Amino acid sequence: PMGQYVYRNVHLPAVRRIISVHSCATCALEKAVRLQPRAARNCWKRLLLQRLRGYEFSMYRSADLVLALTTQERLDILRHIPDQRITVIPYGVDIHHFRPRPEIPSEESIVFTGIYGDEANRDAVMWFANTTWPLLKAGHPNLKFLVVGSGPTRDMLDLARRDPQIVVTGQVEDVATYLANARIYVCPMRMGTGFRGKILQAMACGLPVVSTTLAAEGIPAETGNNIVLADTPHVMAENISLLIADPELRHTIGHNGREMVVKRFAWSHC
After folding, report:
1. CA-to-CA distance for 182 and 208, rounded, in angstroms?
2. What are the angstrom distances between the C-alpha of 142 and each of 163, 164, 233?
């Protein structure tokens, strides 16, 4: 988003310009439109897409170097501008702050974190709550779903009003506390691009993660070893239920995820 201030800026001297693309807006919008191609609310997105595509990639062409966080993001950008000079810089996480905290007792809960001004995070919560959550509740009536982060929408707050087992916190002082309190981290994202640092935070806390394949882009995910990948409500519900019922499996996947993050994504490696 800050790249606009170096693009066609006549007041800047002749300096090298590097733009770090945390998430390609055009690629994210394309995925959102493909997800619901016939939705009436996507009409404005289709109209916006052409203008956005022209502006965003022209801005990148004006830079001496573009940085991306994942190989997939790099390939998505090169699909639009094949001659772009672009390098992948790995993401990192504070493994000392985000760490297992056995002194904090966990409750029978699953957790998702995000900033809900982002459409991809809003969609993840609503899709999970409407498709996967009912399947989970049928077998685990005491299970809680914690939705942590700033900017929850009216639809999300309505979920919590209708179902006391869904807890929408709003902005919190420290996400790590809520991760330590939960037993499983879920990342049911279906749209968006870039790297989901929230998954690294959960893994660094020793939480087993159940994620869509899309959300795990950029992470050396080995399903059943350091993460569980699931792209449909039934598969996601089945795997979460399995982890709830098997503390040893939760520990193993959480431990392996933590080990992978320490070796690959600690700040000292990035």
Report:
1. 10
2. 12, 10, 19
Scanning 36-93, the segments in alpha helix (DSSP H) are 43-61, 71-80
Q: Is the pLDDT of residue 42 over 80?
A: no
Q: Are strands 144-148 and 166-170 parallel, antiparallel or unpaired?
A: parallel
Contact 74, 88 (CB under 8 A): yes
Give the global pTM. Answer: 0.87
Whole-angstrom CA distances from 270 to 34, 193, 202, 262 are 33, 20, 18, 11
Percent of the chain exceeding pLDDT 90 equals 73
Give Cβ neighbours of residue 83 (< 8 Å, ≥ 6 apart): none
Burial 134-170 (b: 16+ CB within 10 A, else e): ebbbeebeebbbbbbbeebeeebeebbeeeebbbbbe
pLDDT tens readout for residues 164-204: 999 999 999 999 999 999 999 999 999 888 788 999 999 99
Binned at pLDDT 50, 70 and 90, residue 77 comes out as very high
- Cα 7 from Cα 58, distance rounded (Å): 9
Strands (E), 5-116: 18-21, 65-68, 86-88, 109-113
Q: CA angle, corner 235, sides to 229 and 237, nearest 5?
A: 100
Query: What distance, in Å, lies between the first and last C-alpha atoms of the chain?
Result: 22
Compute CA distances 7 → 2, 10, 55, 251, whole Å: 9, 9, 10, 48
Residue keyed to tokens 């000292």 = 268
Dihedral sign for Cα atoms in the order 123, 124, 129, 135: positive
